[in-house]
Amino acid sequence: MSVEFEQIRQCGRERLQQLSRPKEPKVEWWTNVGPNVMWGTQEMLWPITQEAKDATPTERVVNLATPKKNFQTGMHAGRPLFYYSCGRPSMIWENKSNVKEANTRVTDLSVPKQPSKEFTNQEIRPQYLFSCGRSSPIWTVQKGALSAGDRPRTQSLANPRPPHKEFQPSRQVESIIPGGALSASASERIHTLATPKERPNGPFRPPQWPVTPGARNAISSTRCADLARPKATVEGYQLPRDEMWPVTRAAKRGSASGRIQELCRPLVRASMDHVQFNPDAFLVKETALKGQVPKRVEELSQPIQR
Hints:
The chain has 306 residues and is mainly α. It has helices spanning 2-20, 26-32, 50-54, 59-65, 104-110, 143-147, 152-158, 179-183, 188-194, 213-216, 222-228, 249-253, 258-263, 272-275, 286-290, 295-300.
């Protein structure tokens, strides 16, 4: 019996250890499994098979891949891009024909800021020294650098990065409808489906249903009567009392005793106008002066050492 009990105990211990191990989250399953791809590049997550690359598209795929037609032509053409730009030499909107010359205020505002009297010409620096992206040089280039020839390595580095061999430029937004689709005629099945549904004009039945005499004189069964009976309350249940309790006649006719009348009298204290002239108003009783503070009160009165 002791050997069997020890085996059962060992099995239970192993089972408890197995159940106490934390469950592996599914998030790690998704993040750890898969190809190691660098984010921010144009590499595919999964490699494309050669069969998919060499496959010929169907006519349906070609029709879906055709861009839509651009209807923004003529009067409906979109506005040029320089209308929405800032800092471009192109005009943002056309000038009015009736405005020919600027007024005095516009002429004053268009005058550039003049330097101060203490400013000298030696302090003038070219404006392109403080700019970025301009064609002007930021510093002077040596004559040897101007007459030097390009090396093959420099030319290879100066060449722009070529696109991928299978790169395709972006398609047009508008899809062009083929001429066959424009001149095609609908079949009989499409005509039948396009026909609206025919609905009768009437007469319709009245919105109210007449009740038969048999239904009026019907008697419900015992089961229906039991189901229709409302649920009863628990034995001993009392309804909630009203917010206002009516006063009984005996309470209205009752008279207060002498003790109650004595307790209900307000405590009358002398005003400060009279107390300030009474020298014995704030005297301490002799019993209070002879009293002793208990140890517990003295212990609680000690300040906390911090």
